[in-house]
Structures are given as structure tokens and as C-alpha cells.
Amino acid sequence: MPNVQVELRVVTPLFMGGAEPHGNPAEVRALGVRGALRWWLRAALGGAGGAGADFSDTAALWQAEAAVFGGVDSAQSKASPVIVSVHTVQGTPQPLVKERPVRPGTPVNGRDYLLYGMHGNRNNPAEARQFYPPGTRFTLGLRSRLGADDAEAALERACAALWLLVMLGGLGARTRRGAGCLAVESVTGEWPPNVPPLPLVRDLPSPAALLHVLQRGLIQIRQLFAGGPL
């Protein structure tokens, strides 16, 4: 079955946990990645509403999302045609410690300001959130489930959601403040031809090059989702 393997490198602190409270210990989980991909899929589906596809109805949006990542409601359930996997995590989680104490009249460190609330406090440093530091690498896999309906089309949309996640967002907590950003080191497997290719970090020598890739890619993804439901 078609599959894609993407080696990713963490660029900014990645806060992602498992079932334990407070996100400790840190863990890159396939379930969490799937949730982030769902969010970007919904964003893409909503953005396609003015391009020939109508996802203004929440039921239609749910059906389009379930066609890619599965779903359960009171009336029906559907297994995901796309299997998400995470493996070969190369990095050691560490607690977030303030780089310097905050004193009146002292400038606040930029990282401490953006990640406020993720640190431990003086009385209980164990509450500090663990994170994967920049330079951590892991491999994300997407593959079609054997025998699933419209498996290749679902994988295509899952890859489009991954493109959006990498190019415009990130993984884990505090992504709106710049945490969890990722860079692409390698892509292997059968990347769908209708989805803009994930650019390798070495192929983006300047902000202008990144802007060019973003502009072309967003146009291509909008065209991909304009066709409506699977």
C-alpha cells in the first residue's frame, strides 16, 4: 500500500505529552500527531469553501474529515483509511527551566516570555513541563490501510494536512507562540503527485525561497480541496 516516511527535526521546543497529567514525561505520540493533522485538515476544508466545495455545514465537514482520519458519532463510525506512526525519536526530554530569574527592571528573556506558564516554580520545580529540545529528530509515517475505501485519496489529503502543519504550524502545546516548529530532513516513499512536495530545509536558502514555496503550495492545496468530499 502507498506510504510516506518523513524525517523531521525539531526547531523550537516541542511540548508534547502522553496520558500523564501536565504533559510529563514528554512523548511524541502518533495519537497527538493525528489530532494536529485533523486540525489542519479542517482548516484546509474550510478554506476550500469558496472554491467549489461547500463545507459550511458541520455534518459535511465531519464526513470529509472522517473520510481521511476516521470518526465515531451516534449514527455511524468509520475506521481511518490512513495509519499514522511515529518512530526513531532521537532526543532526550528535559524540563523547561527559566534562563534567568525575573527581577524588577530586568529585561525578560524572550523564550521565557513566550513560554510563560510552562516553567516550574521556585516551590515546586517538578511542575516544569518537559520538552524535546531543538535538534531532536523523529520519523513520521503515513500509509494507507489495506482494504480501506478511497485509501489513496485519503492519503493524499493527509499528506496535504502534513504540508500545512510543517509549513504553517507545529506540534504540541504553545504552537501559536512559536513552539513545536519542525524542519524536513528527508522524505521517502510515494508522496502524492497532487500535493506540493515538502521542501527539505537545505533547499530553503533564504526567506524569499520559503515565501515562494508557500505561495505555490497554498494555491495547489486549495485546488486539491476544491473538488469537495471524497
How would you describe this protein?
This protein is an alpha+beta fold and 230 residues long. The chain has one domain. It has five helices and eight strands; from the N terminus they run βααββββαββαβα. It has a four-stranded antiparallel β-sheet, covered by helices on one side. A two-stranded antiparallel ribbon has the order 2-3. A two-stranded antiparallel ribbon has the order 5-6. Strand 2 and strand 3 (77-78) form a beta hairpin. Helix 1 crosses helix 2 (58-69). The two termini are 19 Å apart.
Q: What is the structural class?
A: alpha+beta
**N-to-C terminal Cα separation, in Å?**
19 Å
* DSSP, total strands: 8
Biggest sheet layout: 4 strands, antiparallel
The fraction of residues in strands falls at 15-25%
Encode the helix/strand succession as letters. EHHEEEEHEEHEH
Seen as an oligomer or otherwise, the chain set is single chain
Q: Enumerate the strands of the largest sheet in spatial order, edge to edge or round the barrel.
A: 4-7-1-8
Q: Percent helix among the residues?
A: 25-40%
Helix run count: 5
| Whole-number tally of structural domains | 1
The coarse overall form would be globular
Low-pLDDT runs = none
What is the typical, i.e. mean, pLDDT? 82
Over the alpha carbons, how many angstroms does the gyration radius reach? 19 Å
Descriptive key words:
four-stranded antiparallel sheet; 18% strand; 230 residues; 5 helices; alpha+beta
Short overview:
With 230 residues, the protein is an alpha+beta fold.
Helices and strands, with pairings:
Elements: E1 3-10, H1 30-47, H2 58-69, E2 71-72, E3 77-78, E4 82-90, E5 94-95, H3 110-114, E6 130-131, E7 137-144, H4 151-168, E8 182-189, H5 207-225
Antiparallel strand pairs: 1-7, 1-8, 2-3, 4-7, 5-6
